């Protein structure tokens, strides 16, 4: 199952947290927002949005990736 197979599950939006909890209740404690280290920032889906929205999301993903890499390395 999803919750037993992985040590950490990262999701982009807060409603994904509850959906994972419904699908795999055992995964609740290891599911976190990808933007957790950015003040629990959600990372919106830029699909069908402007180029500016894509750039904004790209920057958020880059920042969140760096923050997770730092936390996981320590």
From TrEMBL:
Cross-referenced Gene3D superfamilies: 3.40.50.2300
Lineage: superkingdom: Bacteria
Xref: InterPro entries: Ptyr_pPase, Ptyr_pPase_sf, Tyr_phospatase_low_mol_wt
Keyword Hydrolase: yes
Active site: 45
Domain Phosphotyrosine protein phosphatase I: 1-71
TM region(s), chain numbering: none
Family statement: Belongs to the low molecular weight phosphotyrosine protein phosphatase family.
Protein name per Swiss-Prot or TrEMBL: Protein tyrosine phosphatase
Organism: Acinetobacter baumannii
Source organism phylogeny: Bacteria, Pseudomonadati, Pseudomonadota, Gammaproteobacteria, Moraxellales
